[in-house]
Amino acid sequence: MNEKFSGSFTQQEPLSDAAIAAALEVMQHGRLHRYNVVECELGQAALLEQEFAAQVGAKYCLSVASGGYALATALRAVGVEHGDLVLTNAFTLAPVPGAIASVGAVPVFVDVTENLVIDLDDLASKVGQAKVLMLSHMRGHLCDMDRLMQICNDAGVTVIEDCAHTMGATWNGVASGRHGAIGCYSCQTYKHVNSGEGGLLVTDDEEVAARAIMLSGSYMLFERHLAAPDRAVFDRIKYDTPNISGRMDNLRAAILRPQLRDLDAQVARWNERYRCIEDGLRETPGLQLTERPAAETYVGSSIQFLLLDWASDKVQEFIRRCADRGVELKWFGAPEPAAFTSRYDNWRYAPVHSLPQSDRILAGIVDMRVPLTFSLDDCAQIARIIRAEVGAVFQREGSLPS
């Protein structure tokens, strides 16, 4: 009889006792707004920013309402204006081009490679078109950041890193988000720390930091920040930087602080599960895994593989068969957006140019969450089910593309 997996792909672990206690303390005193503090009190949001800046080695940090808000704030803080072109990945999630569109700018899409990272040759050919690259480390895959930064530095292009899927990851020992001018992180439930929604922005640029803080809705309370520039920097920018309120509150910050302290241990647990699934899928005929470079320290909170050059009806049949056995997979090749998956040609607010390389790769990308609620036995079972169903569809006579 065929195995059937009975676990949930959306169930998170409960918050730790430390996070619950911190949340209760905030709820008991009632000062949820980040600037609502009593004399000599350091608010939870300000402490979170100070601690995360130290954790990733940044001078400045700002906590905000969401990762998408952090991205849009980063664009505004570096001076992106209506009509400007902004480079970004063809393989990403909708909040990335959405952030670009939200400031009136225009996304210019760069190809993806079979290792699911931005194509650096295509980037080099397009880098002269824009002054900013919003680089998405999509689904936790880091490209060669040394070469990317060389390309962008030579062209005078500012890099904003979308680290929604790479909090805790590194390239050559440098934390994700610390190669470019700004790093933006998500604290949404399905990311690496869970406050339901939330975001973090880090930078070493004092004026960018000051503008981001003013944009987030600090009014003239910026001196209550602990990971912020000196008052003199705010005095230079405070009159011409609009308030677009999107602050994080003290309750979410309180929940996040203990989680950030546990992040390294959680990364190790994710990667143990990732490698278990990866090992179970290796050398499956018809299925291609992505290669992880030696310079990359990744966080395996999701796993992707390619059914490259499969006919679309066969990919759909495979996904349906896995679903019937309890394994929930997402496909980036579907013609219509579904759940969190969509493609660059679905975003009709952005001009679409022909990207045949990306079209081929997107048509084969299958994605799966790896919750920490899964045991290693669960992961091994999931890999067996995927392997069996790939074999059932791929090996059937007539199933291969002609």
Describe this structure in words.
The mean pLDDT is 96. The protein is 38% helix and 14% strand. With 402 residues, the protein is of the alpha/beta class. The strands form 3 sheets. The protein has a 7-stranded mixed beta sheet with strand order 1-9-8-5-4-2-3, sandwiched between helices.
Give the SSE map:
Elements lengths: L16 H13 L14 H13 L3 E5 L2 H11 L7 E5 L5 H8 L3 E5 L9 H7 L5 E5 L8 H11 L2 E5 L7 E2 L2 E2 L6 E5 L12 E5 L2 H11 L14 H7 L12 H12 L1 H19 L6 E2 L6 E2 L4 E5 L5 H13 L5 E2 L24 H7 L2 E5 L6 H19 L8
Parallel strand pairs: 2-3, 2-4, 4-5, 5-8
Antiparallel strand pairs: 1-9, 6-7, 6-11, 8-9, 10-12, 12-14, 13-14
Helix pairs in contact: 1-9, 2-9, 3-4, 3-7, 10-13, 11-13
Overall pLDDT metric: 96
Q: How much helix, percentage-wise, in residues?
A: 25-40%
Secondary-structure element string: HHEHEHEHEHEEEEEHHHHEEEHEHEH
Q: Which structural class do the helices and strands define?
A: alpha/beta
**What kind of sheet is the major sheet?**
7 strands, mixed
Q: What's the Cα radius of gyration? A: 22 Å
Number of helices: 13
Read across the widest sheet, the strand sequence of neighbours is 1-9-8-5-4-2-3
Looking at the structure, what is the overall shape?
Answer: globular
Q: How many beta-strand segments?
A: 14
In short:
GO terms for molecular function: transaminase activity. The protein has 402 residues and is an alpha/beta fold.
What descriptors fit this protein?
single chain, alpha/beta, 7-stranded mixed β-sheet, 13 helices, globular, transferase, pyridoxal phosphate
